[in-house]
Structures are given as structure tokens and as C-alpha cells.
Amino acid sequence: MTESVMTINGEAVACEGTFDVIDPATGAPMGSAPQCSPAQLDLAMQAAQSALEPWSSDHESRRKAMHEAAELMRGSAQELGPLFTKEQGRPVAMAVGEIAISAAWLDYYADLELPEKSVRNLPDRTIEVSRRPVGVAAAITPWNAPILLAMWKIAPALAVGATMVLKPSPYTPLTTLALGQVLAAALPPGVLNIVSGTDPLGRQLVSHPTPRKIAFTGSIPTGKRVAVDAANDLKRVTLELGGNDAAIVLDDADIDRIVEPLFMSAFANSGQICEATKRVYVPERLYGKLVDALADRARAARVGSGLEPDVELGPLTTDFQRDHVEDLVREAKAAGATIAAGGHRLPGDGYFFEPTIIGDVQEGTRIVDEEQFGPALPVVPYKDLDDAVQRANATMYGLAGSVWSADVDRARAVAARLMVGRVKINTGGLPSMEAPFGGVKWSGVGVENGPWGLEEYTDLHVIETGVAPR
Ligand code: NAD
Fold first, then answer.
1. Among 176, 329, 387, 451, which residue has the fewest nearby CB atoms (within 10 Å)?
2. Does residue 341 have a pLDDT over 90?
3. Could you tell me if the CB of 109 is within 6 A of ligand 1?
4. For 2-241+439-463, which CATH superfamily applies?
């Protein structure tokens, strides 16, 4: 059993209360995490507030500390990888990869500056516009990619001179807590505080009087509650929420070539990626071939404990997520859908579900209309491309999407019509650090990454200078 500590003001802090963390591959407890008390949360907030002035006023020290933190993080990846897998489920190589790549965000932001802008420069009047750190930020993360999503918040906030109190998901707190201790060796006390607890602690972070900014990644229903709670105190928010991303296959696509990247865009991390492909629209002519090819690929996928070598897809992270996927598949089947591959949970106590391809299904069925966030993919035929675009857009989700075609110009024209934050063409690749990532409609407010992600931790500040009175 792995026991863990919080990081408050640079110190390792234990709690009287703890809660169990489950290994999704076995369904058994694998560790315990501290349940932060209200008094400990106050201490974390105070520490972040006290660290704010010295941290924000010395850019060069920030830069150095962040590069050092990145180095320490890379060095910890091999050791923390198995812990990540044991609480989250993904294959250990992917876990190590997520930790290592997340460190690159610290390096990137350490060197990214927001230039001051002069908007008027006349002999009798100058106006300069700059951005100042927003203050203390509270960050809340989900269980599907706990380290990357934490770093999308930590790195820009710290780079701009803000300080942070971060709470990971109660389902996957351990790697984030361990990382807090690793980073504490490079960062001054109070700059980054990591606390853990069950869902009500998230609400306490949002409602606490100290933070001026809430950075939240999670589900749409929780995101809406966060927005309401933050509004009571007019805190700034970034909300990165759920998606129901459509992949639109064009009639010139080569199915043999796209099947692998399209499959992985939907099934990597067992489908538990906010911008995974969650429904596929394919021309009627290619429908049968695509369903067969995806079904063959799904049957060939190696499913098992992420600690075993050569496993491609681990378990779902929680039992309720597995049950949710199972319900959606069952409902689709009852409505007349065909299960071309998979369709069942695996025997045993782990939260495994077979990679599932669903045909003969369309809108009006929850597996098409809602976010499944798991390894079950509906494939929907279309007659007319305009109709497919209209159906892809006919939703309150608006995170990302993809277009698959042999003709990149045609694909770009379709991409321009998708009402989402990000469209990928012939790739399922993850967001990059240089480009803004965020959703429209119910998929979010604000963005992460790139200089735009840095600006989210700032307030604009204007200095206007006239002539000195004589
Ligand atoms: P969730 O909303 O249940 O929980 C997210 C976090 O919020 C957890 O840390 C939880 O403890 C906390 N929380 C719960 N209630 C709260 C409250 N009232 N106030 C403040 N915090 C509270 O989400 P989840 O199930 O952990 O994550 C899965 C969801 O996250 C999916 O919908 C997925 O699409 C989405 N997601 C979005 C992105 C993105 O960047 N857009 C990335 C990853 C995941």
C-alpha cells in the first residue's frame, strides 16, 4: 500500500483522515491519500499568498527554479510511472511518457515571456499595457491524465508569477502528491501546494476567499457548479470540460491507412481522453469496410493490467465509468445497434471492458449523443457531407474533432466548418504546448497552453503617463 503526503509551504504534511485509492486492474485498494482538513486548506492558501510577492517579483529566479523542477520531474518519471499505472490503469510506458512529457511544459513556460506593449508613445503622453499575475490560483484536476493536466495549469501559473494550490482527483491523487514532493526540492516554499481530498474539498478550494483564479478540468456538470461557485466571488475561471468529438471520414479516405490512427484516436487510454474520437461519421459506401477494419483492430488489441508488458489498453479508472460505458452499450443494443466487436466487461474484479465497435446506430441513442469516455465507439453512416457536418455540430459539446481524407485541402475546408476548439486532420495527436487548447459551447471557458494559456493567469494592467506638472 502506498501512503502519501500533501505538500504545504514546502513541507510534507500528513492528515488524521485518509481515504483509499483503488487499483483499477484488481478492484482492490492500493494506497491511501490524506483527507485535507479545512484548517490545512487555510494553511495551504496562506502559504500560497505569502509566497506570491517574492515569487512574482523575480523573473530570473522563477526561470531557474522551473527548469530545475523540470529536470527533477524527468528524473522521477521511471520511479513514478508504476504508481501512476496502479492508480489510473494505463500501460506503464504511457504513464512514464506522460510524466516525462509534462516536464517539457515547465521548460517551455519558464522561457516564455509576455511582452509589455506600448499602445501610445507621444512626447506628452505614453500608455503601456502589461499583464500582471492574477494572484493565488486554485487548480482542480480529473483522473484520466492527472499529471499532464496538472502541468497545463502549474507551468503557466508559476511562469507568470502566480502561486497555486492544486487538488487532484480523489481517484488518482497519489502520483500528483508524490510529484508535489519532487517539485518542492526546486520551488520556494508555498509556490506550489498540493492538497488531496474527496469532491467536497474541490468546492472548498473554489469558495475559499484567497484564490482569484480557478483552473478546472473535469466533467461538464461539475464545471457548471464550479462556474456558479466562482461567480459568487467573481473569480476568474478556466474550465476544460467534456467533449463528444466527431471524426468525419471523407469519401476519398483510404480505410486501410486511416484505421490505425483512427482507432488509437478513440481508444488510447481506454477512451478516457477528453478529446478522444467519440463518434465516427463515414460515407455509406465506406461504412461496411470501416466497421470491419475497426472491429478487427479492436479484437486484436491487447487488454490487461498496465503493469504487464505489451499491454495496449488498461482497465477503466473507476468502476462507475466502466458501468457507464456498459450501460450505453446495452442501451444501443436494445435500440437495434450491432456490436461489431467487444461489448462486454471482462471477467474478474478489475474494471476492464472490451474495446467495442458499434454499428447500425445514430443520433437519438446516448452512445452517439453523449460522452462515453471509455472504449466503445459508434460508427454512423452518412449520405451527404453537409448533413454529416450539420450532425457533428448539432450538440452542446464543442471540444475537438477530426477529418480524415486523402485530400488535405478538402479536409481543411470541412475542418473550418466544425464548431469546436480544435480540429485534427488525419491525426489523433494530442494538443501541443504552443497552441491554445479549449472548448466552445459546453466544453469549456478559456484555454490552456501557448501564450494564451499564460494570459489566463494574468490581469491586464495599464500605466498612462502625462507630463509632470511644473
Ligand atoms: P469530475 O467533474 O467528476 O471531477 C473533476 C475534479 O473536480 C475532481 O478533482 C473532483 O474531486 C472535483 N470536484 C468534484 N465536485 C466538485 C465541486 N463541486 N467543486 C469543485 N471541484 C469538484 O470529472 P472526472 O470524472 O474526474 O473527469 C472526467 C471528465 O473530465 C470528462 O468529462 C472529460 O471529458 C473531462 N476532461 C476534460 C479535459 C479538457 O481538457 N477539456 C481533459 C480531461 C478530462
1. 387
2. yes
3. no
4. Aldehyde Dehydrogenase; Chain A, domain 1 (3.40.605.10)
